[in-house]
Amino acid sequence: MAPAAAASEATDKRKKDMRKLRPEKSIRKGQAKGKTKSSKNKELKSGDDEKGAVRPAASALTKVEKGDIQYATASQQLSFFVNQYQSANEVQLSALEIELLKDTSFIELCRDPMRQNMSKLDEQVKNAFGSSWQEVLCRGNLVQGQIVPGSPALLVISSSAIRSLELLRDLRSLTKECHAAKLFSKHMKIEEQVAVLKNRVNIASGTPSRIKKLIDMEVLGLSRLAVIVIDMHTDVKGYSVFTLKQISEDFWDLYKCYFHERLLEAKVRILLNGPIPLERRKMKKTASKDSS
Length: 292
Fold this sequence. Notes:
Strand order of the largest sheet: 2-3-1-4-5
Number of helices: 12
Structural class: alpha/beta
Order of helices and strands: HHHHHHHEHEHEHEHEH
Largest sheet: 5 strands, parallel
Number of strands: 5
Low-confidence stretches: 18-65, 280-292
Strand content: 5-15%
């Protein structure tokens, strides 16, 4: 056989071999692309398998599989909070400094299997304030000498204006008589917020930078502040108050200036609203940085 013919035959053989391999790969790609957005959304909502048995929705599975703690104890919240503080501020707290922070300063999310609505933020807040929740959070009258204008009892901190509004919707059962203050910069003039804070405010929700600015201006008071809710929700890119760089810097600046001492003096408690990621994620991230 001529060399040219032999080479041509070898080339044809390689092409045939490649064609044998392609269908399986292309089928996999086709199957992946064949999932439309609507079918994906349907899976997330229903969470039903082929046999009809109900399983947790994909979002719930993700939390469990990744090791998130959905109902963290007070000590777990404290440990997470201290680790986030040290990481963000690039400091190592001494044993004495850590001892000053008590787990009693953190509120555990209440889990009651008999009450489906305990997952809602308003129910968690009621539980945190105990029997006084209605008087402290719902009354709208400004009592001279007792209620300081612009001083909320509950402050909700989140990473964005949209998220702040979502959390306020969860609290609307508590804000019918006394409207909540929206403390973020998007579509909100600071003059409008100053005007709102001249009245009685029981609940306020906003972003760290605007909250700090209003405290600096001495229009947002802290004399009644009893509970700070820190939203643990992650956005579509997986960022939260603690992991989105600018928001995280703003939050810790706010915390160190106005909340840390109050926490040590047991004047305020913190509620981490949402699942808490296990620290092993952070350790992996640190290890990858060290190896790079």
